[in-house]
Amino acid sequence: MSDQQPILRKTHLEKIEDGIVEALKQGGLSAKYLIDAFPDNPDQFDMDDLEKVALVQYTGSRYDAPGETGSAAQMRRAEYAIHLYLRRVSTPVRGMREIEQLRLAVQGLSLEGTELMITRDGLVDQDAALWRYVIEVACWIPAVPLTRTRPSPFITDFNKPEGA
Question: For the chain, how big is the Rg over CA atoms in Å?
Fold first, then answer.
C-alpha cells in the first residue's frame, strides 16, 4: 500500500488564484515586480533586493443560505488578498499609484466563470524600509455539495401471505 496521496486536479479556488497571479503579470506592471502566489512558508520568504512584491492569497469564503428549491447548493463569496510590499530604494515610494495599477489589472476581471470585484485596499503597516499594502478582491462562485445517495426505504409487503 502506498503512502502517497492521490494527485487531485486544481480546485476552483486555486484556478482563480492562478488567474489573479497571471492577470497581474500581464497587467503592465514594471519588471521590478515579483508576482506570485503567497508562499507556503511565509517565514522563509525573503525579499532580498526586490523593490516590489505582489503576492496573491486565498483568505476565505462567505456563504449565502441555500436557495428555496430544496437543493443544498449555495453561492460562495471567495475572497483573496493581494499583498503589496514596497521597499524604498532611492526614490520615495508612491503606494497609491502602485495600488491603482494593481486595481486596474484585476477589477472586473472575468476568469473561471466569475468576475472579480475590489472590496478594499489600504496601508497595512510600514517601517523605515518597507511599506505593506493590501488589495482585497472577491468573486461569487457556486458551492455544490457532493452527491450522496440516500438509502431507499426498506420495502416489505405485509399483505403478502407467508410462503407465497
Answer: 24
Strand, helix or coil at 106? helix
The H-or-E segment that residue 135 falls in is strand 130-143
In a domain, 163, yes or no: no
33-37 and 52-63 strand pairing: parallel
Residue 113 lies in a domain: yes
Please write the tens of the pLDDT for every residue from 102-120. 999 999 999 999 999 999 9
- As a whole number of angstroms, the distance between CA 41 and CA 85 comes to 17
CATH of the domain at 87: 3.30.2000.10
Does position 33 have pLDDT exceeding 70, yes or no? yes
Domain membership flag for residue 2:
no
**Can you name the residues that pair with 76 across neighbouring β-strands?**
63, 141
